[in-house]
Amino acid sequence: MSTPFSSPQQILRDVFGYTAFRGAQQQIVEHLTGGGDALVLMPTGGGKSLCYQIPSLLRPGVGIVVSPLIALMQDQVDALRQLGVPAAFLNSSLDADSAREVSRQLLRGELKLLYVAPERLMTEGFLNLLERLQQEAGIALFAIDEAHCVSQWGHDFRPEYRALTVLHERFPAVPRVALTATADAPTRREIVERLALEQASQFVSSFDRPNIRYRVTLKNNARQQLQAFLETEHPSDAGIVYCLSRKKVEETAVWLTEQGWDALPYHAGLDAATRNQNQRRFLREEGVIMVATVAFGMGIDKPNVRFVAHLDLPKSMEGYYQETGRAGRDGLPANAWMAYGLGDAVSMRQMLMSGDAPEERKRVELQKLDALLGFCEATACRHQTVLRYFGEEHPGDCGQCDNCLEPVDTWDATQAAQMALSCVYRTGQRFGVAHLIDVLLGKATPKIEQFNHQQLSTFGIGKELAQQQWSGVYRQLVAAGLLNVDMEAYGGLKLTEAARPVLRGEQAVWLRRDAAPARRQGSKAERGSRLREAFAGANEDPLWQALKGKRLELAKEQGVPPYVIFHDSTLLEILNRKPQTLDEMAQISGVGQAKLTRYGEEFLRAVAAVAKGTDAG
After folding, report:
1. Which of 23, 171, 352, 470 has the fewest CB atoms found within 10 Å of its own CB?
2. For residue 338, what is the enclosing H or E element?
3. Residue 424 belongs to a domain
4. Model confidence pLDDT, tens digit, residues 525-557
């Protein structure tokens, strides 16, 4: 299929409705259009898909996109078709007749983009089909999305990604681009090695997501804390709540529903039909909360997820960054909220150590977990802490995290740390936190009497601190690497080498002072204050409701998610600028020619109707 477009800028404006590229997008597009290979690291919501979609439209032939998830393919293809771009996907959701028709369209040159799962691409039949395509219609490029899946150290390892070097071997003249939003330095090196991209140009964008507000709260009563967070800041928003276990997902979804929220469960234990139905509702309806394990979310393209909440600790900084990155993809304010406690660290270590993975892999995973624990306990700017993990500097003082908005109160805990560590040593390095605190507080429990621990020099020496304060001390000593959790001793604490200089008095210890549990805000005026701030009153504006209603009506007619029609950010611009003509509508970001033709008049009528005080329907 020949291309009717003359430049990347023309496609950006006429097809996608944007007036300017962001960050390194233009460089990447021009590099790929010229036939170069590339490795692209760009944060979620940074516009990775444009980097391969525009070159696919400019170059002769079809862009082949390797994508790991069916939901992502469907999303991307729906969005491209809305823009007037001939696109399709090939995966297990298609019946045999539909798959054959897509293959025929491909060979006839009727498509410009084809999304395919790595498992299907690696079949000999499909590789032969690609060779025919190369001869007849041509291949514009290969895009390998979610490229971190190639790394055995990554958080989403997919063995089939390892075989994708075949693209370089069988189609050496076709440019390839590997893209990911989450990769530390070792993962980047492995992507380059495994995909034979040693000669590729690397484009590393800033990992910062300044629109996301990071917050970590000490876990007290996690459900009540979550409810207070939702009532205060997200009374009617779409969001994701992550839990560690399937059981907790089910229980939390039921509990949220009982409290009046529109909540759905998602985990690998549900049958495929239920999972698909719940995901479909989340994507296509407004204000749905998905309660999920990490099985949900990779590649989810819903732009108006206003919050991601973690009721349990993720496995790594990469996992945390990618999961929280599903919030605020439209660039509008969003929240990443996590409730965290020592029990999370213990249970996560137990899970990582109990598997049958090689020792080297366990060691790497524990290091990644330690980095996340350090993030949770950090007193510095959280944006700065996240970015440093990925090798990027940040000046701090972001104004978009709990530590910057409410500076952390720290205290000289050197003496308390020495007491806590000494108690671990004196009791034999095999007891959990609850028993250790009982010893420090001098409690006469049956367990203390059983082990004769009332005779220890540490018995009763810690009465100046309360039980909750000692719990905070132990939690932070574990996070700081001075104590390890011994899984063979049922979660008992053991000293590390890092504890020696503290016990000898050679190193001071400063810890964060845990805040008292926050009370729920009671008044309706206080609830939703963050939402009103984020959207400058949009949620109470009749035009905002009319625009969302029109979008939902059109989406239901076509069987697509509302954001495929227009993103919230586009509706917000319509709300603020109130266009009255098609020319004015064409200036709105996100309104390309195809969408202007299909929806321009509909939304202009909605604007006019509200202005006249009549029904916008």
Report:
1. 23
2. strand 334-340
3. yes
4. 333 344 344 454 676 788 988 999 999 999 999
